Each structure stands twice: as C-alpha cells, then as structure tokens.
Amino acid sequence: METTPKPRPRPVPTPLDRPYWQFLRSHDFRLQQCAACGNFRFPAAPVCPECQSESFDWNRCSGTGRVFSWVVFHKSYFPGFDDAIPYNVAMIRLAEGPMFIANIVGIRNEDIRKGMAVEAVFDDTTDSEFTILRFTPAK
C-alpha cells in the first residue's frame, strides 16, 4: 500500500530574515554583516551582538566552513522526515565566523568528521517555495 509522504516543516520567514530566504531562492548565500564593526551574524538580529550597532548590510558569504559538531537522528520527530531516517544535523563554523545549523549531504553519516571542510549547496524544495542551504564535503 502506497502512502503519500507527509510534508516537511517549512521555514516561517519574519520581516527580519525575509531577505535571507529571498537571496537563497536566487542561490545567493548572504548574511547580515554589521556596517560598524564588520561582524557577520546568524540568525538575523536587529542589533550587532558585538557592538550593538543597528546598521547592517546583507553581504555575500563564501559558503565554506568546517564541521564543529553533529548528530545523527535515528528516530523521526517530524513525520515529514520519516523517509530521511537516519539523517544528520550539523553545526558548521562558517569561514566568516557564525555557526550555522544544516544537513551535510553527499557523504555517509559515519564518514562525517569534526573539522571536515564543507561547502554550501542549494536545495530547492519540490514546491519551489523555499531553497534550503545544506553542506557537502569540500572538493
């Protein structure tokens, strides 16, 4: 008996992070960067956590980083991910500094290593509403 896959949870953009999602849709990885001190930040915030400036721009990021930590989920907590079990969720330290939470694709879960160099890949969702940033081992 075939069953229809359950939908996956979707991002709910806010006015503050809507530009992030719009840039990703165009396969353009940008984060807030403080116009006063140059600090990149994620997630989006109204003020810089380093200098408290309210001035920022959305600047392009390299899309590179290193695995800081990760977990592999063997149990489904959201029915939309039933078909993905087991899947990883990793903390990536971006080259620009912020930590970023994402999946690592293109590698077996058991081959993920701390400090492994990774690069961003754009995953357009099937409904074309969102693009999700994931990472893959760097070439």
Please describe what this structure looks like.
- With 139 residues, the protein is mainly β.
- The protein folds into two domains: 15-61, no CATH class; 62-139, Beta Barrel (OB fold (Dihydrolipoamide Acetyltransferase, E2P)).
- Helix content is 6%, strand content 35%.
- It contains one helix and eight strands; from the N terminus they run αββββββββ.
- The strands form two sheets. The protein has a five-stranded antiparallel β-sheet with strand order 6-5-4-7-8. The protein has a three-stranded antiparallel β-sheet with strand order 2-1-3, covered by helices on one side.
- The protein is globular, with a radius of gyration of 16 Å.
- The termini are far apart.
What are the salient characteristics of this protein?
139 residues; mainly beta; OB fold (Dihydrolipoamide Acetyltransferase, E2P); 2 domains; five-stranded antiparallel beta sheet; three-stranded antiparallel beta sheet; 1 helix; globular
Fold blueprint:
Elements: H1 18-25, E1 30-34, E2 40-41, E3 56-60, E4 64-73, E5 87-94, E6 99-102, E7 117-124, E8 131-137
Antiparallel strand pairs: 1-2, 1-3, 4-5, 4-7, 5-6, 7-8
Q: Which sheet architecture does the biggest sheet show?
A: 5 strands, antiparallel
**SS-based class:** mainly beta
Distance between the termini: 41 Å
What is the molecular shape?
globular
In the CATH hierarchy, what is the architecture of the largest domain at level 2? Beta Barrel
- Strand/helix succession: HEEEEEEEE
Q: Which sequence of strands runs across the widest sheet?
A: 6-5-4-7-8
Helix-residue proportion: under 10%
Number of structurally distinct domains: 2
Task: Quote the CATH topology of the largest domain.
Answer: OB fold (Dihydrolipoamide Acetyltransferase, E2P)
The first-level CATH class name of the largest domain: Mainly Beta
Low-pLDDT windows of residues: none
Separate helix tally: 1
CA-based gyration radius: 16 Å
